[in-house]
Amino acid sequence: MNSFSHKPDGYECPFCRVVTGVERPNKGTKQRDIVYKNKDVTAFIASKWWPNNKGHVLVVPNDHFENIYELPAEMAAEIHRAAQLIAFAIKNTYECDGISTRQHNEPAGNQDVWHYHLHVYPRYKNDTLYLTKGTFTDPDERPLYAEKLRSWIRENKALVE
Question: Does residue 63 contact residue 153 with C-beta atoms inside 8 Å?
């Protein structure tokens, strides 16, 4: 069952650009922000950060699906496999107290990029994640986080698969 599309006319999907390797000279996602990629999904450091939860990751399907209503169940499973790997990497490299995932659909559900994506957040005691707003980062802030996660994944991927 397909849903009504909410993307505006002429919409150029920023996540499809990430997956295909196209960069813009702005603060958006860069190829060096990618921490994991396979034939189905790409995971990268988000360009928008919450003040106490820096370096969170977005996991997206490589094919374009606007939201959960369009997402095939097999792809949802692949996204969650990658999200679990990312959660282990974040937990072991950021020394956080926990992990939260969240996903938004349609404008009323807070979706603002019209390509399905799952957020994986590092969580800390009293971090007030749900009481704060995100702001866009400088691209030079993200590589430290990306390299930590890529390195952990390279060394430990076989242990969690």
Answer: no
For the stretch 38-63, pLDDT in tens is: 999 999 999 999 999 999 999 999 99
* Packing angle, helices 73-94 and 143-160, rounded to 10: 110
Cβ neighbours of residue 119 closer than 8 Å, sequence gap 6 or more: 46, 56, 57, 58, 100, 101, 102, 103
Measured distance CA(88)–CA(156) in Å, rounded: 9
Phi, psi for 26 (deg, rounded to 5): -135, -165
Q: Which helix (H) or strand (E) holds 153?
A: helix 143-160
Phi, psi for residue 18 in degrees, rounded to 5: -60, -50
Residue range 72-113, pLDDT digits in tens = 999 999 999 999 999 999 999 999 999 999 999 999 999 999
Residues in the chain, total? 161
What distance in Å separates the CA atoms of residue 47 and residue 110, rounded to the nearest whole number? 17
* DSSP element (H, E) containing 59: strand 57-61
Query: How crowded is residue 100: how many other Cβ atoms within 10 Å of its Cβ?
Result: 16
Tokens of 136: 């866009």
- Residue among 35, 61, 59 nearest 120 (CA): 59
